[in-house]
TrEMBL record:
<comment type="subunit">
    <text>Homodimer.</text>
</comment>
<dbReference type="InterPro" id="IPR045864">
    <property type="entry name" value="aa-tRNA-synth_II/BPL/LPL"/>
</dbReference>
<feature type="binding site">
    <location>
        <begin position="195"/>
        <end position="197"/>
    </location>
    <ligand>
        <name>ATP</name>
    </ligand>
</feature>
<feature type="binding site">
    <location>
        <begin position="203"/>
        <end position="205"/>
    </location>
    <ligand>
        <name>ATP</name>
    </ligand>
</feature>
<protein>
    <recommendedName>
        <fullName>Aspartate--tRNA(Asp) ligase</fullName>
        <ecNumber>6.1.1.12</ecNumber>
    </recommendedName>
</protein>
<feature type="binding site">
    <location>
        <position position="343"/>
    </location>
    <ligand>
        <name>L-aspartate</name>
    </ligand>
</feature>
<keyword id="KW-0648">Protein biosynthesis</keyword>
<feature type="binding site">
    <location>
        <position position="340"/>
    </location>
    <ligand>
        <name>ATP</name>
    </ligand>
</feature>
<feature type="binding site">
    <location>
        <position position="347"/>
    </location>
    <ligand>
        <name>L-aspartate</name>
    </ligand>
</feature>
<feature type="region of interest" description="Aspartate">
    <location>
        <begin position="174"/>
        <end position="177"/>
    </location>
</feature>
<dbReference type="GO" id="GO:0006422">
    <property type="term" value="P:aspartyl-tRNA aminoacylation"/>
</dbReference>
<keyword id="KW-0460">Magnesium</keyword>
<dbReference type="GO" id="GO:0005829">
    <property type="term" value="C:cytosol"/>
</dbReference>
<comment type="function">
    <text>Catalyzes the attachment of L-aspartate to tRNA(Asp) in a two-step reaction: L-aspartate is first activated by ATP to form Asp-AMP and then transferred to the acceptor end of tRNA(Asp).</text>
</comment>
<dbReference type="GO" id="GO:0017101">
    <property type="term" value="C:aminoacyl-tRNA synthetase multienzyme complex"/>
</dbReference>
<dbReference type="GO" id="GO:0000287">
    <property type="term" value="F:magnesium ion binding"/>
</dbReference>
<dbReference type="Pfam" id="PF00152">
    <property type="entry name" value="tRNA-synt_2"/>
</dbReference>
Length: 417
């Protein structure tokens, strides 16, 4: 077989040279050249500069002695490119602890098994999600990322000049996935979210990715929560089964996930926190510190993943259905060890109520006429959610900073690479 990659590490021990090549697998290919057996190959391998791009012909060795990767018996090797400057970062051993360096040189550090493993898990998450959703009758859609109206509040909109008009980068496919429920019963999109989050936190990006789902003809919010918990369980168990090498490389143990997840009413969450001495001001959303505390308390009871349901209407988006009591909404969050990884809920599908909700939230229905029109011609009860891919990765892999979960970071200070 022919395999290709980059020379990651090279070591000569007496008459034996061992070269590690970082290629398509998590673990490197290990090429062994023995002077006594094949002097020509030994010479070529011994003089390969670190970082060279090479392809080799060979077969996996019958005896696998290396702990670092798969050993190959090499028949021939060809060099395609050599570095013209020394590598700017150390690619072997432990990945640099300085996040700054990791972000700047991620494209090169991906030759390191640890860095590569993170993004192979990301790829599996997307693949598992697509597999689960398609198998359950959801159709994959693509909606515009240059939009005329935001759905998640004006404060985090990025403005763009769209010819003579002002437009925005899409914060979420919310309005479009709902519009499509007027003709397709189940849709999903794997999509970027652009949000002008002004602060630097370890769990916010300005360009992040989500798995967005919308489901029509629901009986209640429970239908949507079922879809989300089954999807998350499917994704985590998929990675657990298919990414054993990656998880081992990252030193991560992923317990098997079972459903259903615990449902906690918002007021219950507040009570639990207060009885544990955490202050929660009346009428406010949970602070991130309160969320983390709640995560610890829930994990101790064996609930790493849990829903918080029934948020006060004043703190939620206009599109969530308001309960009869006027105070609560059919909105839920899904938290994973104290971090919100998804939110969603049942939507207001009744035209008049939706117009009223826009007004009550201080928004001008005229700006949403393209959206409202879809509610005039038989819009069924529906609901959905957005699941943050990087947030899910953080909690699955124990990453401390969301910036570790994205190839090219977009935050307040980073626009390159
Ligand atoms: P999302 O914006 O996706 O709904 P979130 O995690 O930002 O999720 P919020 O409900 O907006 O959740 O906020 C939860 C807590 O996090 C709040 O206490 C809020 O003060 C804090 N928070 C939200 N955004 C930021 C930010 N950009 N920087 C610092 N703190 C933030
Ligand atoms: P929400 O605003 O809660 O809901 O976003 C859904 C999920 O997306 C992730 N997320 C982010 N991750 C990193 N950086 C960010 N700046 C960021 N913003 C959001 C989080 C969050 O839980 N339209 C609704 C969803 C719906 O109701 O269908 C929405 O966007 O994991």
């Amino acid at each position: 077989m022919r395999l290709c990659g980059w020379v990651l590490r090279s070591k000569t021990i007496g008459r034996v040279v061992i070269v590690e090549v970082s290629g398509g697998d998590v673990r490197p290919y290990v090429l062994v050249g023995k002077q006594d057996l094949n002097p020509e190959l030994y010479n070529t391998l011994s003089t390969l500069p670190l970082g060279s791009a090479v392809c080799f012909e060979g077969e996996p060795a019958r005896e696998q002695k290396s702990k670092r990767g798969t050993e190959f018996e090499v028949k021939s090797i060809k060099v395609y490119a050599e570095p013209i400057e020394p590598l700017p970062v150390e690619l072997v051993g432990k990945v640099p602890s300085l996040l700054e360096t990791r972000i700047k040189y991620r494209w090169l550090l991906l030759r390191n098994p640890v860095e590569k493993a993170i993004f192979r898990v990301r790829q599996s998450i997307v693949q598992a999600a697509r597999e689960y959703l398609v198998n359950n009758g959801f159709m994959e859609i693509h909606t515009p990322k240059i939009v005329a109206a935001g759905a998640e509040g004006g404060a985090t909109l990025f403005k763009v000049q769209y010819f003579e008009r002002e437009a925005y980068l899409s914060q979420s496919p919310q309005l479009y996935k709902q519009i499509l429920i007027s003709s397709i019963p189940r849709v999903f999109e794997i999509t970027p979210y652009f949000r002008a989050e002004k602060f630097n936190t370890v769990r916010h990006l300005n360009e992040s990715w989500g798995i967005d789902v919308e489901q029509g003809f629901i009986e209640s919010m429970e239908d949507v929560m079922n879809t989300l918990e089954n999807l998350v369980a499917y994704i985590i168990n998929y990675v657990r089964d298919k990414n054993k090498e990656e998880l081992e490389t990252l030193d991560v143990e992923l317990p098997r996930v079972t459903t259903p997840f615990k449902r906690l009413k918002f007021e219950e969450a507040v009570d639990i926190l207060r009885s544990n001495g955490v202050e929660v001001p009346e009428g406010e959303d949970l602070s991130d510190q309160a969320e983390r505390e709640l995560g610890k308390i829930m994990s101790e009871k064996g609930n790493d993943l849990y829903f918080i349901v029934g948020f006060p209407w004043q703190s939620t988006g206009f599109y969530y259905m308001r309960e009869e009591d006027g105070h609560h909404t059919r909105k839920f969050d899904l938290d994973f060890r104290g971090l919100e990884i998804a939110s969603g809920g049942q939507r207001e599908h009744r035209y008049d109520k939706l117009v009223e909700a826009l007004r009550l939230k201080g928004l001008d229905p005229a700006n949403f006429s393209f959206y409202l029109e879809a509610f005039k011609y038989g819009m069924p009860p529906h609901g959905g959610f957005g699941l943050g891919i990087e947030r899910l990765m953080m909690q699955m892999l124990g990453l401390n900073n969301i910036r570790e979960a994205v190839l090219f970071v977009r935050d307040r200070t980073r626009l390159v690479p």
